[in-house]
Amino acid sequence: MDRVAAFGLFDRLVVATEAPEIAELVEAAGGEALLTSAAHETGTERVAEVARTQAGSGYDVVVNVQGDEPFISRQVVAGAIARVEAGDDVGTAAVPLTGDPADPARVKVVLDARGRALYFSRAPIPYRRDQSDGESVEHWQHVGVYACRRDALLRWVTFCPPPAERAERLEQLRALHHGLTIGVALLDEPAGLAIDTPADLARANELWDAFQKGSR
Question: E strands within 2-121?
Answer without folding.
Answer: 15-17, 33-35, 61-65, 90-96, 108-111, 117-121
